[in-house]
């Protein structure tokens, strides 16, 4: 357990989050509200406490079965706007100043959203989040792990509609048996158009998948990548090329990607010199939030206030925020760490 002082320091620390999904970040309150709206046509409970209980995942494939049921609650532009605006408010309450929110447009398009409408709604919500809460949002459009039409539709909405907040292309969904390499043409097109590459790999699959993400998709950061720990040559490559892993410790325990927090490979990754950031993935689904993930990292890595502030700085550095925005956020972190340092002078 970390000290109450460090817990307080983390709670007030200005932070950036680089790996969090819009559906997975919806609060149980908003999910329950949507479930009530669509009662009779959904198995999702209409009570926030029961929503939390609903998120008791047996493993990663069970998680992937439950997830679409929450996607299915987003049926109108208002549902989508309310969800994203709520996520922004929850982030602001955690002192998250900047977040790259992973959005998977394809299942929404399959449920009837027109691409233009989808982009207009999320962009309006993004601007309102910044105006109402001061939190800057950017988008990672995520291919839902299926080549062919779902991947093509994702690329098409990304490049054809190109919302202002879009910074990267991702790749999520099922991983086992889904080679990263087969998505190379989509990532090549996105990168040629100026988008960054941030695929999931090595969450529940081995280091070979992380190699594929790096070699074939030009990954600049890798979502999870934790199984990369099994391959020293890969760790050396990630360290040498400054390829950051977006580590989500509690997510990995809840999906049984790792057996326990105590056995999480985060310390080994850090010891190997791999750049890492700490993230939530799908916070209410995993009963966590960013402050809690920072506390988990502080415990696993034996961090003090300076170490925790360095985690926040690492997220800013590895983000796709522009130079000016990065400098401003880094200055804010420095000012906070300077003012709140409980270190002896
Ligand atoms: N979509 C939402 N969360 C995910 C995860 N942890 N892995 C892959 N796809 C996801
Ligand atoms: Zn994820």
Automatic annotation (TrEMBL):
Belongs to the metallo-dependent hydrolases superfamily. Adenosine and AMP deaminases family. Keywords: Hydrolase, Metal-binding, Zinc. Gene3D superfamilies: Metal-dependent hydrolases (3.20.20.140). Its cofactor is Zn(2+). InterPro entries: A_deaminase_dom, Ado/ade_deaminase, Metal_Hydrolase. Pfam families: A_deaminase (PF00962). SUPFAM superfamilies: Metallo-dependent hydrolases. Residues 14-335 form the Adenosine deaminase domain. This is Aminodeoxyfutalosine deaminase. The keyword Hydrolase applies.
